[in-house]
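Hi there. Long-time user, first ticket. I'm pasting a complex I've been working with (about 576 residues overall). I'd like to know whether the download I got is complete or cut off, because the file seemed smaller than I expected. Thanks.
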Amino acid sequence: MSPLSFFFEVLIGGLLSGVMYTLVALGFVLIFKASGVFNFAQGAMVLFAALNFVGFTELGLPWWTALMVTLAAMVVLAMAIERAVLRPLLGQDHMIVFMATIGLSIFIEGLAQLIWGTDVRGLNLGLPEDPIFIGDILVSRADLMTAAVAALLVLGLSLFFTLTRIGRALRAVAEDTQAAQVAGVPLGMIWAVVWSAAGVIALVAGLVWGARLGVQFALTLVALKALPVMLLGGFNSIPGAIVAGLLIGASEKLAEVYIGPYVGGGIENWFPYALAVAVLVFRPTGLFGSTGVARV
Amino acid sequence: MERPADTVADSAGRGVSAVAEPLLAVNAIEVVYSRQAMVLHSLSLSVPRHGIVALLGANGAGKTTTMKAISGLLRSERGEITKGTIQYDGQRIDRLDASRMAARGISLVMEGRHAFGGLSVEDNLRVGAFTRRDGAAAVAETLDMIFSYFPRLKERRRSHAGLLSGGEQQMCVIARALMARPRMILLDEPSMGLAPQLVEDIFGIIARLNREEGVTFLLAEQNAAVALRFATHGYLVENGRVIRDGLAAELASAPEIKASYLGFADEGMAGFTERKRWLT
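Hi, the file is complete. Here it is re-exported in full:
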């Protein structure tokens, strides 16, 4: 195998794992865009979704029924969060809502484990194990399929945002909440939709990460993987989350392979943060983030 | 100083009987922010059907708070109407959520324009039609009607609203409010930061909308000279109270308005105090 093919193999492997970071980051970005709140509970939602899916399949439901039931559970959860947490805190400082999401994350983690128990469960999505060769480059088929699902999800979301009446209203709320309200857009409904969409993303993220790590409490920590992605891409940019996810996935693998041997390895875990901090020095809002410059 | 709302006659003579119930009646409201700062003290005003009423006053007098109180936006800023009522078309609206007003026929155009910068002009307008249930054809018809008033917006319908000039953005947000087919528009500082000719254009369009489409306007303006030229009635607000009201023509020649807001008096700033602009 030539050094060049090896480079591309690492690069492609890195990009594909970057897709998984993007998946988690998207949920954060969506909620941040629509309400200016960093949703600390996104990781808990990933766990909640994955546990529900696995739990329902273990009860004997076929996988697509389990998927639909879990989807419904995520929507119900979103509506409950809107009613019980967001609505009473309307008009409060973002920091206060952020703290509420910390409480929310503890609650959701507890609820999920109360219902389904704390055992580590395996999740087999039936994805093909054996890699394929493209030229002489080895590519994981499971990762390719994950990337395809993620691409479909992003495509679906962007169509929803640009073409539908609700999607347009959602962008309006993200731009200017009060102006959207006086135009007749009910905030509660929009938040319920946004949190449902974040729940759907959490479900997809929970399935692909659950299949890799097992469905267990540690799944909430995949949220940590999303943090440097958001720092790099900007908290309010969906394209930013995609590009930054891929960038971080690729660069951490390349750094591990090419720089790792000189510093004793283990680069993968801190490299994304170092990269994000380096970018922040030059672009404090991330590569794609906006500070909301307005003409007055 | 304050007259009970039901005795305010529509003296504009726009084909409405002189004793008609006003479209909007604000009855002695008191507004408190964060449970401690009282911003409006027993403020009353009324807007006759098909009228144009100007709300005048300096920075921080309470104009914007009044507009937000009427449109239901106070709650999201931790403000509260602690006393008084607001009636629109005979029904109380002071407990309604801001997002319900559009469907009732009231649209607020906020101070500082607030166009959705990242959305195209046309998408901005379509968001304005969010509450309409009368079908795409009717919405398209309104869009055409609006473009006939604002031909500039038609030219720029595909541009991001954030890239428009200040005047175009002001037109965009007025047009967005019109998309809901409102009976009443609350317009907060439409002239802010615009060149005199543009201000003239925008007020001209407001007058046409009032005449041709029958839209009722409540305008908050610091530019008293322009506002009183187009309005039928005016209210002068200071420190959260109405200190004078009457027909626009009378107000335009009233000494305290001339002195403080039109800048004609020799004494200049009599009665006018610089106030910190807060809670707007």
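A couple of notes from our side: The radius of gyration of chain A is 20 Å. Residues 62 and 117 of chain A are 21 Å apart (CA to CA).
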